[in-house]
Design brief:
Blueprint (H helix, E strand, L loop, with lengths): L36 E5 L4 H12 L3 E6 L10 E5 L8 H4 L8 E4 L14 H22 L8 E5 L11 H21 L5 E7 L28 H12 L10 E4 L7
Parallel strand pairs: 1-2, 1-4, 2-3, 4-5, 5-6, 6-7
């Protein structure tokens, strides 16, 4: 995921060219001395694990950040124990990353309650992992993302608002604002920043007792979204055909947003 120079780097620094290529072709491993490298959060289960497995199968190297060991396995995998709620430790967790051709923030949690029974602690916990961790992670890595690199934040279809999920929805809506702002800041470097927003997805989070107040509803297609489908959308955004897509939110919801 190395690309032609396309403007100044952070804080007006001189344009940077990632060594070894002059093309806009992300993960063009065959043309490089080493495979592309991604940093993926939440890699122990669910969407984060599916993304990790998808990238490893495609020949990427992956630095996987999660509290528990990454569920995937492969020669290109490096697992780093990291609690994304512990913001002060995130920079140290990625200190050994020399180049991040892609950053995928998939870590998440859900706590549900209706107005009148909201928990400020639950709201803060979701904000920490979904939004603040994204801020700290991408801020720490942005100067190690080469021109033409990719950033994907995993949001949620609930970002538009769902009864009983106001706090969760607010944190996921914030990711769209982050992505559009960062996309505008990085567009001259051809670094794209996008959100993938799944609907009800068959992951451990969907069955977490902490969200029992809002049980999942089956999408109109009659099935839950699979983590692999979401991972496929992320992989598309990391690929060469998505190099002109930036600042966007792609919804994968099996028809949930139709009505």
């Amino acid at each position: 995921m190395r690309a032609r120079d396309a403007g100044a780097g952070r804080s007006g620094a001189a344009p940077r060219r990632a060594a070894g290529t002059g093309t806009d072709a992300p993960h063009a491993a065959a043309a490089e001395a080493d495979p592309p490298h991604a940093v993926v959060t939440g890699a122990s289960s669910g969407i984060g694990r599916a993304v990790t497995e998808r990238l490893l199968a495609a020949g990427w190297r992956v630095t996987a950040l999660s509290r528990r060991p990454a569920g995937a396995a492969g020669d290109g995998l490096r697992w780093v124990a990291a609690d994304l709620a512990d913001l002060d430790r995130i920079p140290a967790a990625v200190a050994g990353v020399e180049r991040a051709d892609a950053v995928v923030h998939a870590a998440g949690l859900q706590r549900s309650a209706r107005l009148g029974a909201l928990s400020a602690a639950d709201g803060a916990a979701m904000w920490q992992v979904h939004v603040a961790a994204a801020e700290v992670l991408v801020d720490a890595l942005v100067d190690r993302v080469p021109d033409g690199g990719r950033v994907v934040l995993v949001g949620s279809r609930t970002m538009t608002g769902v009864p009983g999920k106001s706090q969760y929805a607010a944190t996921k809506a914030a990711l769209t604002a982050l992505a559009r702002s960062w996309a505008a800041e990085l567009v001259a470097r051809h670094v794209t920043v996008n959100v993938v927003a799944p609907g009800p997805t068959d992951t451990p989070m969907l069955h977490d007792p902490a969200r029992a107040a809002t049980p999942p509803r089956l999408p109109p297609m009659g099935r839950l979204v699979s983590p692999g489908e979401v991972a496929g959308t992320v992989a598309f955004l990391l690929g060469p055909d998505a190099r002109s897509i930036t600042g966007q939110t792609l919804v994968v919801c099996a028809g949930t947003s139709l009505g």
